[in-house]
Fold:
Amino acid sequence: MLLSIFVFSKSHDFFVIAAAFFGIVAFTTVIWGLIEKKEFLLVWITIITLLSVILALLLWQIQILPLWVPISQKTAFVLFFLWVWVVVLKYLKVEKRQSLKETAS
Structure:
């Protein structure tokens, strides 16, 4: 019910642009942290995901290729959740290794 307020309101475009802005800020901070940890493969995966999100946003906002908007949005959605899955799996493995080292010593 609460989400329908954002979808069916006159301010829908504003909410989408605001969410995109904060999402891009979050992506750039994640990229910065991954660069500091020297996780360059994850940096490239993050950049590809960020570019797909930006492309979907631009196609929706500019309305150049309206038939491609749903495809680009679905692609960005899938890439985003695959990216989250890869990052979580990567850091769960790191956390598991650290806990195994602590129990071994």
Notes: The longest helix spans residues 69-104. DSSP finds four helices and no strands in the chain. The radius of gyration is 18 Å.
